[in-house]
């Protein structure tokens, strides 16, 4: 689903307009900028990501009708819509990530050093 479709779902649930919810849903899917497939969800589509969204947007938003809606409820709905009805933890995502040698800092990248002349310093 994209941010507009999620926003329409939010309108059906809490009222207001698509524009009321678009910033939250765009933020939740903002990781698509880095990874264009479903793996982008590993960065925010989990319980900790929902709490982070609450820190970014505050505990509630006031929609155009004046109604106050909990941010966490909106973001939880986004995640459950995308994840087939459940909210994974960050550990659920990371458990599926194979460990690589470079993650421990053991694989060194050789960097060519350039000697500067005294006047270049």
What can you tell me about this protein's structure?
The chain has 121 residues and is mainly alpha-helical. A hairpin with a 5-residue loop joins strand 1 and strand 2. The model has no long low-confidence stretch (mean pLDDT 91). A two-stranded antiparallel ribbon has the order 1-2. 43% of the residues lie in helices and 5% in strands. It starts with a helix and ends in a 26-residue tail after the last helix.
Architecture blueprint of SSEs:
Blueprint: H1 3-14, H2 18-28, H3 47-57, E1 60-62, E2 68-70, H4 71-82, H5 90-95
Antiparallel strand pairs: 1-2
Helix pairs in contact: 1-2, 2-4, 3-4
Order of helices and strands: HHHEEHH
Tell me the distance between the termini: 53 Å
Q: Segments where pLDDT lies below 50 for 5+ residues? A: none
Integer tally of domains = 1
Chain-averaged pLDDT: 91
Helix residue percentage: 40-55%
Shape: elongated
Q: Main beta sheet, described?
A: 2 strands, antiparallel
Summarize the entry for a quick read.
This protein has 121 residues and is mainly alpha-helical. It has five helices and two strands, in the order αααββαα.
Keywords summarizing the entry:
about 120 residues; mainly alpha; two-stranded antiparallel ribbon; 5 helices; about 5% strand; elongated
């Amino acid at each position: 689903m994209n941010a507009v479709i999620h926003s329409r779902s939010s309108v059906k649930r809490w009222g207001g307009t698509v524009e009321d919810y678009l910033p939250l849903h765009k933020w939740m899917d903002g990781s698509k900028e880095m990874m264009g497939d479903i793996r982008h969800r590993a960065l925010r589509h989990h319980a900790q990501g929902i709490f982070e969204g609450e820190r970014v947007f505050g505990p509630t938003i006031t929609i155009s009708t004046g109604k106050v809606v909990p941010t966490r409820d909106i973001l939880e709905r986004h995640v459950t819509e995308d994840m087939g009805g459940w909210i994974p933890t960050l550990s659920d995502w990371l458990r599926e990530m194979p460990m690589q040698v470079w993650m421990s800092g053991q694989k060194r990248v050789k960097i060519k050093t350039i000697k500067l002349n005294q006047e270049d310093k």
